[in-house]
């Protein structure tokens, strides 16, 4: 079975450019999470969708960040305009909406903003 | 804000030694999970504990959930180089949103 698929795996972009990260969750999962990982701040939850609806976006750092889930099999995280401090690994994860269920992570999108 | 503090942050030990990693919070969680992350990959689930006081074993790894469901520990017996990685605890909130908050992480290195 395919796991969570993220693209791109690596992206280097210039400050001010728009960045779009993509995610395909595991088929059948109804919860989708976007996390950001840095050495300084660890793994931070940015936004959480359930049945394609954003449930909690309190972790989104500022208005430059936006996320969408137009259908059950696709989500995007967009940064516009990007800044050097956005450099991090961005993980998409999915699970079934049951307490204690496993969260399955993608391999991450490594973003460098120069 | 719910925070999960892990200790120690870094740990370097010799093969064959035992170790314990702690995960603490002032908040109550409905369940707690432990993940291991290797370089270049996403975290992978090791175990889920749900009941206060619960103990689970996975080969040489022993996980315990605190009685009050605010803390947890991971004990590794006779560590091996293959145990090297970043260990993360994650707590599910009790609010019903099934939101998982991750701990600060413990980076373990086991030397051969």
Q: Which helices and strands, and how do they pair?
A:
The complex is a heterodimer of chains A (114) and B (112).
Chain A lengths: L4 E3 L2 E4 L5 E6 L6 E8 L3 E9 L2 E4 L8 E7 L2 E6 L8 E8 L8 E2 L3 E5 L1
Parallel strand pairs in A: 2-11
Antiparallel strand pairs in A: 1-3, 3-8, 4-5, 4-9, 5-6, 7-8, 9-10, 9-11
Chain B lengths: L4 E3 L2 E5 L4 E6 L6 E7 L6 E6 L5 E4 L2 E5 L5 E6 L8 E8 L7 E3 L3 E6 L1
Parallel strand pairs in B: 2-11
Antiparallel strand pairs in B: 1-3, 3-8, 4-5, 4-9, 6-7, 7-8, 9-10, 9-11
Q: Describe it for me?
A:
- The complex is a heterodimer of chains A (114) and B (112).
- Chain A is 0% helix and 54% strand.
- Chain A has strands at residues 5-7, 10-13, 19-24, 31-38, 42-50, 53-56, 65-71, 74-79, 88-95, 104-105, 109-113.
- By secondary structure, chain B is an all-beta fold.
- Chain B is 0% helix and 53% strand.
- Chain B contains no helices and eleven strands.
- In chain B, the strands form two sheets. In chain B, strands 2, 4, 5, 9, 10 and 11 form a six-stranded mixed sheet that branches. A five-stranded antiparallel sheet of chain B has the order 1-3-8-7-6, with no helix packed on it.
- In chain B, β7 and β8 (71-76) form a beta hairpin.
- The termini of chain B are far apart.
- The A-B interface holds A 4, 31, 33, 35, 42-45, 48, 50, 55-56, 91, 93, 95, 97-108 and B 30-31, 33, 40-45, 48, 50, 88, 90, 92, 97-105.
Specify the biggest β-sheet of chain B.
6 strands, mixed
What is the 3D shape of chain B? globular
Q: Helical proportion of chain A?
A: under 10%
- What is the distance, rounded to the nearest whole angstrom, between the alpha carbons of the first and last residues of chain B? 40 Å
Largest interface: A-B, 27 and 23 residues
User: Radius of gyration of chain B in whole Å, from Cα?
Assistant: 13 Å
| Shape annotation of chain A | globular
What is the CA-based Rg of chain A, rounded? 13 Å
Distance, first to last CA of chain A: 36 Å
Structural class of chain A: mainly beta
Approximately what portion of the residues of chain A adopt beta-strand conformation? over 45%
Tell me the total number of β-strands of chain A: 11
How much of the residues of chain B is beta strand, in percent? over 45%
Helix tally of chain A equals 0
What is the string of SSEs of chain B from the N terminus onward? EEEEEEEEEEE
- Secondary structure class of chain B reads mainly beta
- Per DSSP, the total helix count of chain B is 0
């Amino acid at each position: 079975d395919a796991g969570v698929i993220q693209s791109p795996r690596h992206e280097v972009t210039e400050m001010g450019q728009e960045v779009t990260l993509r995610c395909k969750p595991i088929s059948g999962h109804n919860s989708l999470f976007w996390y950001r990982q840095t050495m300084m701040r660890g793994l931070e939850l940015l936004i959480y969708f359930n049945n394609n609806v954003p449930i909690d976006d309190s972790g989104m750092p500022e208005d430059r960040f936006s996320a969408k889930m137009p259908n059950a099999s696709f989500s995007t995280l967009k940064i516009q305009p990007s800044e050097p401090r956005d450099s991090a690994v961005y993980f998409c994860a999915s699970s079934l909406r049951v307490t204690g269920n496993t969260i399955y992570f993608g391999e991450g999108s490594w973003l460098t903003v120069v | 804000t719910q925070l999960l503090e892990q200790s120690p942050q870094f740990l370097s030990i010799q093969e064959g030694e035992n170790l314990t990693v702690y995960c603490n919070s002032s908040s109550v969680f409905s369940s707690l999970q432990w993940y291991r992350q290797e370089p270049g990959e996403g975290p992978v689930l090791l175990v889920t504990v749900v009941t206060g006081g619960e103990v689970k074993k996975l080969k040489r790894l022993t996980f315990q959930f605190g009685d009050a469901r605010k803390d947890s520990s991971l004990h590794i017996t006779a560590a091996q180089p293959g145990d090297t990685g970043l260990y993360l605890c994650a707590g599910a909130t009790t609010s019903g949103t099934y939101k998982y908050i991750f701990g600060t992480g413990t980076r373990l290195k086991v030397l051969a």
